[in-house]
Amino acid sequence: MPDSLPWDQISNPKVLHSSVAAPVIVVGAGLAGCWIARTLADKGVNVLVLEAGTHVARAGSSNPVGLFKPYVTRSNSYPMQFYLEAYRCLQQRLQQWNLHAASNYTPCGVLQLVEHPYPQSTHYRIVAASETNQPLSKDLKGQALLFDQAGWLNPAALCRALLQHKHIEVRCEQRITDISAATDNQWKLSIEATSELTAKHVVLGTGANHIGLDVTKALNTIPARGQLSRFSVAQGASKLSNVVNGKSYVIPDGDSVVVGATFERGVNDASLVELDNALNLQGLNDTVPGYEVNPRAISSYSGVRATTQDRLPMVGPVPDSDRCNDVYADIRHGRQLDQYPPLPVHKGLYAIAGLGSRGIVTAPFVASLLSDFMLGGQAINEWTPLINPARFIIRQLKRSGG
Ligand SMILES: Cc1cc2nc3c(=O)[nH]c(=O)nc-3n(C[C@H](O)[C@H](O)[C@H](O)COP(=O)(O)OP(=O)(O)OC[C@H]3O[C@@H](n4cnc5c(N)ncnc54)[C@H](O)[C@@H]3O)c2cc1C
Predict the structure, then answer these.
(1) Ligand 1: which residue has its CA nearest to atom 14?
(2) Which residues have C-beta atoms less than 6 Å from ligand 1?
(3) Going by DSSP bridges, is the β-strand pair 168-171/110-114 parallel, antiparallel, or unpaired?
(4) Of 129, 165, 280, 395, which residue has the fewest beta carbons closer than 10 angstroms?
């Protein structure tokens, strides 16, 4: 872990007490919102989840199939440690809360094709791609990493299961259009300009539909549309035994495979595109050459990811951008770092944003860090240099000179 800088030492100025009956409001019922709701509820906190759509998991998390695996790099790194912790947390929570069946958890193993050799590790087995037990494996080239315990699950089903808890109430068709500070240390949330709710603690998990408000302007993410395509396996072709992850991922699911996902940075539109099914078919051919499927996709799914410049999420108290720009203005040429004040934040307003392409793996861990922080813990500080939403404000100030 790098040395901690003033803006990365965050302490909560408004600690939540689990005995308080008034609920924490969570905005958004995707993986971010559902994991934080469940993690708080598990600690005895009452939670009210407000979702704009007609049902839970209607946006980025509505995909029927998603991959979970450890994200590893060739040499050990701080981000790799973060992803390994996240992966451990996902596995532990699914087991602890008995979510395997409800999420269609399928730990069939993930075979990751790699171009350059990887070192030995306890996180995977190194195998020659041509010697794996996949059909047509003789055509696979190079080395592969086999993650035995990894696999796929159904994110939308997982979201629904997470919200089944006596401390959680869910209200759909509740689009939040404004958030402002109210009296008595509360946040006021406007719902489609027709009604209002107040809460002392509010968590934003709004994915790519970032609410463009003054208080949330530090949470800007970059949309990236993606599409998955399902192809039926040709008659007589053998089934894949693991997920194969190469140029695309190919997920075996009964008599079909799900292939994805396309990645269109800057596009915030979840309409289905026929061309993307062709791209996914090409991705299948590149990843498992010669694998025979019926070339017309039998179904497809598209969604929009909320990504960040460094591909890491933004998790924690929402920074007060105006005050950050003020107190850290001279950072490029300024004082010694220890003379700067701690991070100015909007007290009681928190976010899990920018889960990008890895939200299935990272959401439970960041929810665990955030709930601990809300209840007065400090565990998040081990990871703030990576996930602090304020890092982009600081980087901008360093570039511009304030
Ligand atoms: C095609 C595709 C494939 C993917 N594959 C994988 C994979 O294999 N592995 C993996 O780990 N990850 C994968 N991901 C990424 C993962 O699905 C996302 O990171 C995750 O779903 C994001 O969850 P979220 O809760 O942040 O956002 P979302 O799921 O988008 O949830 C945000 C919710 O907030 C609601 N909302 C927004 N604004 C408001 C408002 N103003 N008021 C009330 N509610 C609001 C929305 O309606 C939505 O339900 C994939 C994503 C896509 C699109």
Answers:
(1) 357
(2) 27-33, 50-53, 58-61, 63, 66-67, 155, 175-176, 205-209, 211, 226-228, 260-261, 303, 305-306, 355-361
(3) unpaired
(4) 395
